[in-house]
Specification:
Layout (H helix, E strand, L loop, with lengths): L20 H21 L8 E3 L1 H22 L5 H15 L2 E3 L7 H4 L1 H16 L5 H4 L4 H11 L4 H11 L2 H4 L7
Length: 180
């Protein structure tokens, strides 16, 4: 090996562009709107009090943005919606930015608000993209198994991506002679 310095132009494009304030604000607003929609579909009262850590949501958005930059730089590919929603779900499960503070709903279910929201986010995006049928989620125990896994199991970021990719395939919809 030679001890010659690395030419200065070799690493010019190795840094990613930091997310702009506008993009960050738009993503933050979109996540908060999704959370509002989630609450409107859930068992909670319309006048529910809750806390959202915007710092944690910003961290979620930045982590997803960094992964997008990584994929673009090292793999020369754009991120799919399935991968993006998997990353958002993963980081929401890690940072847990949402908390129910309403005393009427302080039970075990309210402690699972981040896990339930992650499931909602995954299913909503996949339903919208026509990559998941409602019957798949209604399969016996699927929702409860997802909730349990998200609450008590450890997922790597890549396993979460593979999970979302797997449930958005035709294979997931199929019945296998009563096995599933």
């Amino acid at each position: 090996m030679s001890n010659q310095p690395i030419p200065p132009n070799l690493n010019e494009e190795t840094t990613h562009a930091i997310i702009s304030d506008g993009e960050l604000f738009d993503a933050l607003q979109a996540l908060e709107e999704h959370f509002q929609q989630f609450l409107s579909f859930s068992k909670y009262a319309p006048d529910l009090t809750y806390f959202v850590s915007r710092y944690d949501l910003i961290d979620v958005i930045i982590q997803v943005h960094k992964r997008e930059a990584y994929d673009r730089f090292f793999h020369r590919m754009e991120m799919s919606e399935r991968k993006r929603v998997a990353l958002y779900a993963f980081w929401i499960l890690k940072f847990k930015p949402f908390k129910i503070t309403d005393v009427r709903f302080l039970d075990d279910d309210s402690e699972n608000v981040n896990e339930t929201f992650a499931i909602y986010l995954i299913c909503a995006i996949l339903f919208y993209a026509n990559k998941l049928q409602k019957t798949a989620v209604e399969k016996s125990g699927f929702y409860q198994n997802m909730l349990y896994a998200f609450r008590y199991r450890s997922f790597s970021v890549d396993s979460m991506i593979l999970f979302v990719e797997a449930i958005s395939t035709d294979t997931f919809e199929r019945e296998y002679n009563g096995i599933v």
